[in-house]
Amino acid sequence: MADTKAEAKFALPVDSEHKATELRIASFALPHMRAFHFAWIMFFTAFLSTFAPAALGPVIREDLNLTKSNLGDAGSAAVTGTIFCRLVMGTVCDTFGPRYGFAFLMVMTAPPVFLMSCATDAIGYIVCRFFIGFSLATFVSCQFWCSVMFNSKIVGLANATAGGWGNLGGGVTQFLIPAIYTSIAQSKPDYEAWRWTFFVPGSVHIFLGLAVLFFSQDLPDGQYAFLKKTGQMEDVSPWKVLRIGVTNYRMWILTLTYGFCFGVELTMNNIVVGYFFDQFDMDIVTAGICGSMFGMMNLFARSVGGHASDYFGKKYGMRGRLWVLWVSQTGNGIMCIVMGRLSNTLVGTLCVMVIFSTFVQAAEGASFGVVPFVSRRALGVVSGFVGAGGNAGAAWMMNAFFKGENGWSDYETYDAITYMGVVIIVVTLSVFFIHFPMWGSMLTGPTNETVTEEEYYLSDYTEEEKVQGLAKSAQLFAVNSRRERGAVRFAKLEATQTVI
């Protein structure tokens, strides 16, 4: 229930952890909605920068004499570089807070965005894409921030909407960057115009990296430094939290499956403009507009997945959330196969691609409807590993299906898309193995009715740490998570206990 004493301090109604119980999109109030808007805007910018080179691919490849293999290597580099960065970012969020994670990444990746304008050969192009791709680790900060700002009843929707609007940058990039390039090309030669284009996202990186430090807040109750200094927050050991995260098998399954929803989106962002340009003989602007339709579904599709996760979570508990994840991601695989088989019809390809994209992003939203419940103490680590799984999946698919020319494979692009769909369906079967002892899995109920949320979440703390009060936040989270039992079991519990 809401904490009425605390509501006077906040613009939104809050629970006992001071997490918001509502998502008010039109509000920019501190701390909840300010964090929400900063989170998606910076993730959006990271997408814009990372896939700007792909959006200008047909122009850049002519100027730098890039081969298909070079483009494949660059696409892999763009999503591979951030894998390690995402793993580290989870620990940074747990230890130093999401604001510093965002600021560090945005400022650190601004130079390679600017330096893309100086690339003169394939090596320079690939290296710049590798380092620019680090910015995609802002996804971890984005999902972590929303998870600590919003109550479990709406955390799926909050995570999905912030992540989806950030991912929207991948779609907007496909038409915005070519439009900026075309505008600049009116006064400069083509080989200079594409270089000047990169000064736009680079400047935005620096502005946002500084703004987030001064105009936002780490947690509902304040900044990390203040809360640690006043004893309101544990000064966590990065290695201890990392160990807790990596020993939870549920994290590894979600890491794997996320590689074949978010990883699919990254892969499509890398190849979709070139696919339309080559397969249907389009000019770059038209190909960019068609390609952007894949990413534009993020405007609503990821939120749909998050909302569905919350809705079925309310009715059927965690089991409902897991079913939403499996159904949406399996649909993703099926539509991926269909798109690959419609390579001879532009209209059919576009229509199926929109449905395909909707399933992809809904699966992403559903994934992070589950992630916040894997571990309370190691939330950043879990978010980081799952997020890194998306990039690892993209890197694998780029090499396995789209590299060509002496790579692992040399498929036609439409065949590669088909094979990718088959792999998605097979990998997603692993969701059936996720089981929470107090909630159950897709096909089975809880281990037994006596297992509680407190036992699960407090097991990450020693008895000494519990006595010291370090488990207080996990205790509150456990009580608020009882709703994941489902409507019927929760109603029975509510009838006998006071639920926070």
Write the element-wise H/E pattern from the N-terminal end onward.
HHHHHHHHHHHHHHHHHHHHHHHHH
CATH class term: Mainly Alpha
Approximate shape: globular
Largest sheet: none
CATH superfamily caption: MFS general substrate transporter like domains
Distance between the termini: 5 Å
Radius of gyration (CA) equals 22 Å
CATH fold assignment: Growth Hormone, Chain: A
Number of helices: 25
CATH architecture: Up-down Bundle
The tally of strands reads: 0
Please indicate the count of domains: 1
Q: Determine the fraction of residues in helical runs and give it as a percent range.
A: over 70%
Average pLDDT taken over every residue:
89
Low-confidence stretches: none
Taken as a percent bin, the fraction of beta residues is under 5%
Tell me the structural class: mainly alpha
Question: Could you please describe the fold and organization of this structure?
Answer:
- By secondary structure, the protein is mostly helical.
- It has a single domain, classed as Growth Hormone, Chain: A (Up-down Bundle).
- Helices cover 70% and strands 0% of the residues.
- It has helices spanning 4-7, 32-55, 57-64, 68-95, 98-108, 110-115, 122-132, 138-149, 155-185, 190-197, 199-214, 224-229, 238-246, 249-258, 262-279, 284-296, 301-316, 318-341, 346-370, 379-402, 413-428, 453-458, 463-467, 472-480, 487-496.
- α4 (68-95) packs antiparallel against α20 (379-402).
- The longest helix has 31 residues, at 155-185.
- The N and C termini lie close together (5 Å).
